[in-house]
Amino acid sequence: EVQLVQSGAEVKKPGESLKISCKGSGYSFTTYWIDWVRQMPGKGLEWMGTIYPGDSDITYSPSFQGQVTISVDKALTTAYLQWSSLKASDTAMYYCVRERLGAFDIWGQGTMVTVSS
Amino acid sequence: EIVLTQSPGTLSLSPGERATLSCRASQSVSSTYLAWYQQKPGQAPRLLIYGASSRATGIPDRFSGSGSGTDFTLTISRLEPEDFAVYYCQQYGSSPRRWTFGQGTKVEIK
Lengths: 117, 110
Hints:
heterodimer, A: 117 residues, seven-stranded mixed sheet, four-stranded antiparallel sheet, 0% helix, B: 110 residues, mainly beta, three-stranded antiparallel sheet, globular
């Protein structure tokens, strides 16, 4: 079964760092782009950026450039999204997705990140 | 930057009725990269339509997509109780790579 399994919910304080993960299985991990999507509470979907696991080619949305870091470990078939200094406004659900057929065909279950003092 | 505008914001319909959702782009987009998603409360979105009109695996044929250029439509021919959800359109742009979502249309039970 093709799936993306994300790490569990996180509760952090402002200023803390965080790295969440997304493990792919059931397909050739290195040959499909992996993207990250943010959904703030009660709001719509926002594309954050994308990485090609085959060569770690990365593109960020201008809205998220400099705010997060996307990376990948091919050996572990895992993509990551990290923050060096969280803000309350980073509170959201974060989804990793696989690109295929010109769309996002597989979605992780989501990782809820709560940032509160 | 291409902006996708979905209308209406909320659609109030009864089970069995036809739903027509609109997605309008601020400039012409490639149909190859126009997709629709369904999101139910507490769940991750699910791909319904890709390439403007192709149904994803396992999607019932009551869902159909159409359109080209700047105007795209998702139609649900007869609403089932499980279809009440939020629907998003999405498009891809290259140079540089970027994806854009519409703001969503909520289909609610009337």
